[in-house]
Amino acid sequence: MVFSDRMDASPLITAVEQLMGPITDMYRQQVKARSESIKPQPVSVRQYETAVYGFRDQRLPGEVKGVSTLLVESLDAFEAGRVLEAGRFVMQAVEQFEAAGKEAIVTITEEQAAKLGQFRSALFKMINPGHEINQQDLAKKRAAAQSQW
């Protein structure tokens, strides 16, 4: 039997799971307040730091050390209240790790790939909300437009 000493995606999945809560909470607060930047609560910052440093403190293959750097940059952005920038860094970290998996530098199971894809998708939607049309808003806009005729 051959054992691989390659890193798998478990540590990154754990870290990103721990980061998604604070990122999502801050994003919702900023959307609600219609603000670009709201400073996070100290407890959220500590939770974020714990996740980032927990991942960073592991023995990482050289090709994956950039993932750690991106997570630290996301922490800096998060502490400053720049949640979209923090989310962008986390998404880049996930993408870089996925690329390392495709190059067989790290091992990513199908289940882990699906989980990483869910994170990437959620972060992408947050960063690029696009044109998510609410049917009630559409009806109001249509009524307002028709009243101007």
Give the gist of this structure.
The chain is mainly alpha-helical. It is built from six helices and no strands.
SSE inventory with pairings:
Elements: H1 10-33, H2 42-56, H3 65-79, H4 83-102, H5 110-127, H6 135-147
Helix pairs in contact: 1-2, 1-4, 1-5, 2-3, 3-4, 4-5
Percent in helix: over 70%
Strand tally, please?
Answer: 0
Question: Using only CA atoms, what is the Rg?
Answer: 19 Å
Number of helices: 6
Q: What amount of the residues lies in strands?
A: under 5%
Series of H and E elements: HHHHHH
How would you describe the shape? globular
Mean pLDDT: 84
Separation of the first and last Cα atoms: 76 Å
For this structure, the quaternary state is single chain
Largest sheet: none
Poorly predicted regions: none
Number of domains: 1
Structural class computed from helices and strand pairing: mainly alpha
Describe this structure in words.
The protein is mainly α and 149 residues long. It has one domain. It contains 6 helices and no strands. The radius of gyration is 19 Å and the shape is globular. The model has no long low-confidence stretch (mean pLDDT 84).
Features:
single chain, 149 residues, mainly alpha, 6 helices
